[in-house]
Amino acid sequence: GRLMYKLPEEMGLIAIAVRQTQGKGRGGNVWLSPVGCALSTLHMTIPLYSNLGQRIPFIQHLVSLAVVEAVRSIPGYEGIELRVKWPNDIYYSDLMKLGGVLVNSTLIETTFHILIGFGFNVNNSNPTICINDLIRKYNKEEGTQLKPLTADCLIARTVTVLERLIDIFQEKGPNGVLHHYYKYWVHSGKQVRLRGEEGPLAWIVGIDDCGFLQVHEEGKGIESVHPDGNSFDMLRNLIVPK
Asked: E strand or H helix at 239, and its extent?
């Protein structure tokens, strides 16, 4: 918190951790980042009276998308199965988590000061899987010779892509970016249970104008749901209507 007021006014301050032990995850989880994990914190400002300032929850989606596009926009790497998982994870297909995003925002007068933390496994196969594992797997299956990527290169690409996505969002709103987001997200045509293990089944439709998940329950209309930490557990496919 104290860091916030000393920072420059524009985007451009980035901190990169080689090894971090004090990381914060959602709900107070500790995020450990060993070597081989690209981990950084980025500071930016967003005017309150702008498309994104009115829809701050979208920032985490844009950052997740930027990480995925950082890899999949490289010529030859388009087929690497890196995907976004709503609201803030980066996945290998829909199988395994590779990274995540955490956004902290503070409103000072009419400007949001945003601290974005993002981390993803680039080169360490433990404890889960890493981007370079996916590249090796792809090379083996497709007979290609794609080179492994470095954390530095991917952090730089992520920031560049994020700046572009934010510009598009500020100009066109959610519709400017959602088709990209849906192209890479893991939820297309998936079902989830509402309100608990025994709850009714609903289909995931998309995300609404505020960045919340939209689901369609049989016989009912489309409703928006949101993560609330405890009752929200995408891994068990549980969500709670707001």
From this structure: strand 238-241
